[in-house]
Amino acid sequence: MTAEDVIRTTGLTKRYGRVTAVDGVDLRVPAGARFGLLGPNGSGKTTLVRMLLGLVHPTSGSVELLGHAMPRHAATVLPRVGALVENPAAWPHLSGRTNLRLLDAAGRGGRRRDRRARVEVALARVGLGGVDRRPVRAYSLGMRQRLGIAAALLRGPELLLLDEPTNGLDPRGIGEMRDLLVALNEGGTTVVLSSHLLTEVEALCTRVGVMDAGRLVLTEDLDALRVPTGRVLLRTPDPAAVVGLLDGQVVERSGNVLVVREDDPAALNTRLVSAGIDVTELAPQRRTLEQVVLGLTGSGSDRVDGRAR
Amino acid sequence: MIGVELGLMLRRRRVWLCWVLLCALPALVAVLLATTRLAPAPGQGPAFLSAVVSNGQLFPAAALALVLPVFLPITVAVVAGDAVAGEASSGMLRYLLVRPVGRLRLLVAKLVSTAAFVLIAVALVTLTSYVVGVAAFGFGPGASLGGAGGITSLSGAVITPGELAVRTAAVVGYLALCMLALGAIGLFFSTLTDSPLAAALGVLAVVVTSASLLPLDAAAALRFYLPTTHWLAWIDLYRVPILWTAVRQGAEVQVSYVLVAFGAAWANFATKDVTS
Amino acid sequence: MAVWRDVAAQRFSRRWLLVAAGAAGLVAAGAVPWPAGAVDVDATALRRRILGSVPPHVGYAESTGRLGLPQIPQLESAIALFTSTTRIRAFVAGSDRWRVDQLTPAGERDTYRLDGVEYVWDFGGDQLTRVVGEAPIRLPRAADLLPPELARRLLRLAPADPVTTLPARRVAGRTAMGLRLTPSDPATTIGTVDIWADPATALPLRVEVAPHTGPPLLTSELLEVDDRTPDPSELTPAVPPGAATVSTSAADVSGALRQLDAPPPPAQLAGRSRMPLSGTPDARLPGVGIYGTGLAAFALIPATADLAGRVVDNAAVAGGTMVEVPSGRAVRLATPLVSVAARTSRRSGVLLIGTVVPELLEQAVRELPARRRRA
């Protein structure tokens, strides 16, 4: 992992009339990272991604992608970037293979044979290697999603920007996609995915950014977010004895399960065992990503609550 | 990108449907004329139609006069309106732009494919109507046995078949240019909206506005600059000697429309936020 | 941050500015006239030169009339010349060798004159007509509106009226010198006749006819002109295979008039004398009279009771004034350049039309004797 940032935004802001979609975002994504961009619907994730790709022009602030300013150097930067923006799209009346061939031919570079081979490799990677001549119109949601990812992979990108990449995939497909992204990342590709599926991001990413109401409210390594909370979950056939021993440290009791305030789980175990209390299960409690995100963000833009007067 | 765009156009069913319908209307008229022999009185009805019955070789000119006022503009509006807005509504616009395809290059490719569409459309109408016309009405009274004779020009002098081919090619080129001007306007509208239908209706609104201003004396000062004013100038190519004045003026105005509309499309699209 | 916004805004407006400048340039290229050079003109000498010669030329002209005339049955095509735009192409070798085409949207009507014989090619009718003889008066046709022809005709009608110099003007890519004819007869509706002609050949390039007040209502201009003698092939009418060839005499028109059996026109009407009419002997026009001289003249044309009745009805609808006459109905209609009057009785009718004030025509209508079919 190099120290170089593949994405660097400074004070990035986008206003649509009086609405501020993205508000002063300073985002850094280091090369080689698996970065998850989280946030409720309408928090500005998509606008941010579009600004990174030069589709939307910032009201103010600047974007650097792979070390070059965007959108000025789009022609040199974008061939090295693969992207899935919002949802996959295709010319519905053409087959998936024709779609990829035309899309690939629209960009510069490559001889005819290389281009053909490139399309086959990308299709194989996403599990569409044997796709027939049916038009995309007849594809399932999952197939379209795979096709969209294949399009992003066409040029062997150094940076993958994926918006909701597992949308429409079945659990097995999600697993395959996760393996694919991890493999690509280990080959040196920086992966940035934005999602509102926290478990997805938790399973895949090494670092997360959380957006809320247009602002980037948190950027942190996933490990750092998940430091122990100083509480231990304890399951025992004899809860009354535990309460007697650790009176004052027990925070919660529910049947045989107790939550105990204790920074050192090993010491707690030794103490219980030496007191002759059976321990069925003992685990340090960690915060889930969900708790982190929900604690940081307001409700999404798709919810309209009445305001108290 | 131009090759991709042409490939995409040729794979669209809508485009083929437009071409087929454009060729079908004159063929239908030819069949009706041939069975009833009820040609419109001279000087009435669409240009050349009254003369067609005596010489089928004039039918391409009559066919062009038939499709020019309404049918051809509609197909051009549909195809040109779809140019950018269609990609936007299908979501392909953002994927093309991040491929990356330069925005100017995308517009140029769209204009070229529109030009190819109108050229093929006009040429197809001309060719099919020649075949249909000759089949329905024959080669005309001047034809030697089994061969193509000349046609009567508007000025009375005879146009030989070779000359007729050259003049008809010029007509095809001129009309394609007129339609391309409309296509460029459509391309501009297509960058303003994500709805292909809205862009196409915008083009038709331009055509209808221009056509309804045309006969108004109050709009006489504007007349020269209206796009539809010069649409009928190609008829002068069937006079002897050819009268180039109106055709040249028309070509100048249409080229100006292409330049200005394409420039406007570029000015709007170059910094437009793509949110589709 | 502010810098970025400014840059984006600048690029945005700069592109649009470029496009707007280009569009304005293109419009200006078509609309702004080239400056005309200065030419020294003596108007009287120019009039003499225009009347003195018919220089050969090949050109394309457009004539626009806005006379607001009512529809007169059977005269539609003549009236259209004065109420709409006519496209004309001319091939002129001399006063007796020329061809003038009236270009219609879907056809052509070409008049050829070759050694005293006229031919008319009509594309719509697919027919070439050979016209023998010459009628003393005939309906206006496109050839009459060709600037050189129109200019000469108007100047010839008023040889003594004063002419003044007009500033030069750019016509058909040339600097043309101008003259203004102001009719002196107070009875005419014509206020001014402006003519611009080529300084070298005195070929009239543009003619404007205006009423006493208001803009010109008849404008004819050669948009393109070449001072070459047309090729003989351009002057020879062709008969394409399948087309009909017919021969007609100019006298055929007078035959139709003879059917009306109209009385001879009075020697004087509204204080104006009847002018002698020329023409080949077989082409006399019974009942027709031209009254007045110069630009204040009007024609008396007999018509069927039915036709005159329809003109009376149309003119009344078009804002004409009914005229009290002892028998039958009569109307007069004033348009800025041309006045029309009609009178109909049970068995016959009459039309009066001319470039005179309507009061004159009203007086003429009253003076006409009640017509009776002669035994």
Give a summary of the structure in a few sentences.
Chain A is an alpha/beta fold and 309 residues long.
Structure description:
The complex is a heterotrimer of chains A (309), B (276) and C (375). Chain A has helices at 45-52, 74-77, 96-106, 112-125, 141-153, 171-186, 198-204, 222-225, 239-245, 265-274, 289-296; strands at residues 5-16, 19-25, 28-30, 34-38, 60-65, 68-70, 81-84, 159-163, 190-195, 207-212, 215-221, 228-235, 250-254, 257-261, 281-286. Chain A is an alpha/beta fold. Chain A has two domains: 5-225, Rossmann fold (3-Layer(aba) Sandwich); 229-286, Alpha-Beta Plaits (2-Layer Sandwich). In chain A, the strands form three sheets. In chain A, strands 7-8-9-4-10-11 form a six-stranded mixed sheet, with helices on both faces. In chain A, strands 1, 2, 3, 5 and 6 form a five-stranded antiparallel sheet that branches. In chain A, helix 3 (96-106) packs across helix 4, helix 3 runs parallel beside helix 5 and helix 4 (112-125) crosses helix 5 (141-153). The mean pLDDT of chain A is 86. The two termini of chain B are 21 Å apart. Chain B has one domain (2-269). Chain B is globular, with a radius of gyration of 20 Å. In chain B, helix 2 (13-36) packs antiparallel against helix 5 (71-90). Chain C has 375 residues and is an alpha+beta fold. Chain C contains nine helices and 20 strands. In chain C, strands 7-8-9-10-11-1-2-3-4-5-6-12 form a twelve-stranded mixed sheet. Chains in contact: A-B, A-C, B-C. Chain A binds chain C through residues 11, 13, 57-62, and chain C through 1-2, 4-5, 8.
Q: Could you name the key traits of this structure?
A:
heterotrimer; A: 309 residues; Rossmann fold; 2 domains; 6-stranded mixed sheet; 5-stranded antiparallel sheet; elongated; C: alpha+beta; outer membrane lipoprotein receptor (LolB), chain A; Phosphorylase Kinase, domain 1; 12-stranded mixed sheet; 6-stranded antiparallel sheet; membrane (chain B); transmembrane helix (chain B); ABC transporter permease subunit (chain B); transmembrane (chain B)
Report the end-to-end length of chain C measured between terminal Cα atoms.
Answer: 104 Å
Strand-residue proportion of chain C: 25-35%
Give the fraction of residues assigned to helices of chain B.
55-70%
Average per-residue pLDDT of chain B, rounded, comes to 89
Secondary structure: helix percent of chain C: 25-40%
What is the count of distinct domains of chain B? 1
- Unreliable parts of chain B: none
How would you characterize the largest beta sheet of chain B? 2 strands, antiparallel
Shape, per Cα inertia axes of chain C: globular
CATH class term of the largest domain in chain C: Mainly Beta
Order of helices and strands of chain C: HHEHEEEEEHHEEEEEHEHEEEEHEEEEH
List the helices and strands of chain B in order.
HHHHHHHEEHHHH
**Do you know the CATH architecture of the largest domain in chain C?**
Clam
Number of helices of chain B: 11
Q: From the alpha carbons, calculate the radius of gyration of chain C and give it in angstroms.
A: 25 Å
| Oligomeric state of shown chains | heterotrimer
Q: What is the tally of beta strands of chain C? A: 20
Q: Please report the total strand number of chain B as a whole number.
A: 2
Main sheet: strand order of chain B: 1-2
Q: Which spans of chain C of ≥5 residues are poorly predicted at pLDDT below 50?
A: 1-7
Q: What name is given to the CATH topology of the largest domain in chain C? A: outer membrane lipoprotein receptor (LolB), chain A
